[in-house]
Amino acid sequence: MGDIRLAIVGLGKIARDQHIPAIAATEGIELTAIASRNAKLGAVAHFATIDDLLAGAPEVDAVALCTPPQVRRAQAASALRAGKHVLLEKPPGASVSELPVLIAAAEIGKRTLFATWHSRFAAGVEPARIFLAEREIRSVRIEWKEDVRVWHPGQTWIWEPGGLGVFDPGINALSILTRILPQPIFLTAAELRFPENCAAPIAADLDFSDEAGTLIRAEFDFLQTGPQTWDIHVDTDQGRLTLSSGGARLFHDGRILVDGEDAEYRGIYRRFVDLIRTGQSDVDLTPLAHVADAFMLGRRKTVEAFVEEAA
Amino acid sequence: MGDIRLAIVGLGKIARDQHIPAIAATEGIELTAIASRNAKLGAVAHFATIDDLLAGAPEVDAVALCTPPQVRRAQAASALRAGKHVLLEKPPGASVSELPVLIAAAEIGKRTLFATWHSRFAAGVEPARIFLAEREIRSVRIEWKEDVRVWHPGQTWIWEPGGLGVFDPGINALSILTRILPQPIFLTAAELRFPENCAAPIAADLDFSDEAGTLIRAEFDFLQTGPQTWDIHVDTDQGRLTLSSGGARLFHDGRILVDGEDAEYRGIYRRFVDLIRTGQSDVDLTPLAHVADAFMLGRRKTVEAFVEEAA
User: Fold this and answer.
1) Is the ipTM of this complex over 0.90?
2) Which of B115, B145, B176 is the last residue of a domain?
3) Cross-chain Cβ contact B95/A295 below 8 Å
């Protein structure tokens, strides 16, 4: 079987920083086209829109949608209609309910739909899942605190409805949490802090629980300067497990078990190749459903305006 | 088989107005106990809490939870653990994610879990579903406008997080819509208007669509005085179908097809008896997922404070 010919739609920061190097490092897939209104990439075939791409590059087998979530559903629907496999950056959409429609379209067309959660490919996640499967879990505490000015420069879509604000990184924590815990969880309370000039929150505190009544607390903050914190602590009957550095490092009672390099997107593309070759899809809506619950059930607080170019 | 012995938990307006007369009118089920902190019902056995009820009335087969959605999950979990069948008023919970955990508990315990959507039992709904199954749908317009002071007197929980505000009635329209349309829909945009002193919206405009790009618009308003409006208009290739009066009346191009009496809750209890007797559950989360999407994707606007005892 020849290489899968892939097009990237949306040539922004995440595509350049992560997708392009990961595709180059992955066997069985090659980048053959780009759709982006403004940006180009060397000699790679370029189209202004996904519709131009689908019309002008019929040899493309698959598309990776790296556009903001608000426009992704229509692009995914077009690509599936044109017979392409589709990879969705996270979050997989702007609404939970749009995903079942895409899943059905992929099934009918016998194409792969892959809703990626890159943090699930961090080195410590699978070892953490295996460790926790056998343990009694007493409590969970998540701290996911980063500086939006460093990680999302100029990404105004993040503050628009559907852009999710601090849940854009926070959903990464939820994607790990829902993978490593042996039982399903649900939100019980939340506080969301909206800057007075933004349609999305800049900070959130979330309380989850499960059938056993476990206390699970998450703190998301988008204004963390200095050291950045992407940690999940799980207290069990056999000590404390800590996933740190966004899941790349795993500790048990302070002793390091895993210290992985950043290879999340290579994991994504290996899995995408596997899914296409075996005719499968992989769409887990759970993290997005938790975020929707937080917006529905959360108490809103208005906080001071966010200005990107602050002093 | 003897009658199903039912307890009502939460003896508020909906229990008195709807559940009690419907139970009395339904073969195969009888009201044998009440749990309510303050209210009693004649000679029916009374308990202050659901825990007291479960301990003190072991002969009860099933419970109907008519409490506010914020407390219902814990009550449903307790009742299922005690081996009771459970009927949930709408909305079925305060979060989407809490429902799969209850569904799993009901399955494991071989008990019936019934998430009711009373408006789906209105007389015009099933005829509308059958009519639309064969038609090309061009557009849908929903107007769901009622006076909160008339229909929800003193119900302060409705303005708290999880109380849903205008979505408490609006979700009835969505429960009908998702039953009568032949294709799944998803939210594309929304505006939610929050009174400055409330944690839930008092009005909302919602845009939905489907795979075919159909325009579906809903307007929810909680400040409608004078005539009340609970209408769904569907324009098709064979004229306009209108469900009016909350689904009780059905018109085709202005000609009345169905003019039903209000028998929604009798339909609910007939179905609950059937589900218990046949060992099934019935939990459709779709309407609640659309509401969660609206809170996540919707643009928020602050409007003037809501004071129940307005001049």
Assistant:
1) yes
2) B115
3) no
